Structure formats: C-alpha cells, structure tokens
Amino acid sequence: GENVEQHPSTLSVQEGDSAVIKCTYSDSASNYFPWYKQELGKRPQLIIDIRSNVGEKKDQRIAVTLNKTAKHFSLHITETQPEDSAVYFCAASRLNPSNTGNQFYFGTGTSLTVIP
Amino acid sequence: KAGVTQTPRYLIKTRGQQVTLSCSPISGHRSVSWYQQTPGQGLQFLFEYFSETQRNKGNFPGRFSGRQFSNSRSEMNVSTLELGDSALYLCASGEGRYEQYFGPGTRLTVT
Known about the structure:
Chain A is mostly beta strands. Chain A contains no helices and eleven strands. Chain B is mostly beta strands.
C-alpha cells in the first residue's frame, strides 16, 4: 500500500516568515494530494489540494508543489500569521477509475507554531 | 449546505463493551470514510463506503465494522472494546472522487 512520510514533525517560525512542509509518497499511481489544517480541538479542514496533472497550485498565501518524478509534494505558507498555528496533514490518494472509490493515506502531521 | 455531522461527540465505554458511532455526510455526497486519530499514529484509515458498498478497507481488526444506508448516512461499530481503541474517530464525506470533508469527530474513551 501507499506510505506517506511528512517532515518536519514540528516547525516554529517568526510571524511574517515562510513555512515549508514536505511529504513523500511511495505509490506512483497516487494522483490526488490534499493538505489539511487542524486547529486544536477542531476537525481537519481542507486548505489546498493538487492533482497529478498539475505541478503547482496557489491560493493567496498558500501554495503546493508536486514533483511526480521524485514522488514528493510540499506546502508553502508565506507571510505567516499567528492564526496559521495548527497541525498540518498531507495526504495521498489514488482514485480508482473503475469504482470511483478512493483511499487516503495521511502523513503524521506537522505542528506549526507562528511566533508573534 | 450543512457540513458533516457526527454523533455522539463524546463517549465513555468500558473494556469489552461495544459502541456504534454515526456520521451524516454533506447532502449529495455518496462517499463516507472513517478514520481513527491518535496522538502517536495520526490519521489511520478504517474504511470507505460508497453508495452502501464498502470500497476500501484499512488494516484494522475485524472488531471494527461499518455500514452505509441508502441516505448515505454511515455507522461504525467497534465490538469488544480495548483500551487502545480510545481515540478521536473522524468521518469524512465526499463525492467519491477528490475532495473530502471531515466531521467534528467522536471522542471515544475506553476505561
């Protein structure tokens, strides 16, 4: 099965600096890569995702890059703010075209702290 | 649209008991997935249901089972509870292709 590794497990940055979280995956057939943000005591929220036919996607201060050859993808947060502090999870999924079902494999999470 | 809802939100059980958790997906979503979240193991996939059929299953013992009804609501059952089953159980709904959205979770404590 798929194996997703996420690094670092903890990350502290000064407000205004950038943060980068990296994930690698093992199954070359994986074709969908979402990122979730989970604040303390709350549900994971989808913040950005990328499909395998795209190399980069941006949404305001958040961007995700995908390198299919190296099988890794990264989350980039620019101009970090205290409210960005949370646990971030990456995931990889392979959409099976024959049955429309898919299984998500999650990384172990990165606890991001933005220091004011 | 209303978001994914889960009931109950908190549950305390003793070892050996069984428990049933419920998940109501976003209207129109036919896929419901269940996850176990623990501090040490992160988010572990349990199973996915799509149109009342289990499409995928993770590496959990047979004590963990689920089902999905015709209205896409899903239930998860854990029999013969063990202390190690204490966790946050999250369900997520989607259209079965890409994005999935999580519910608030059920916090299960086994004593």
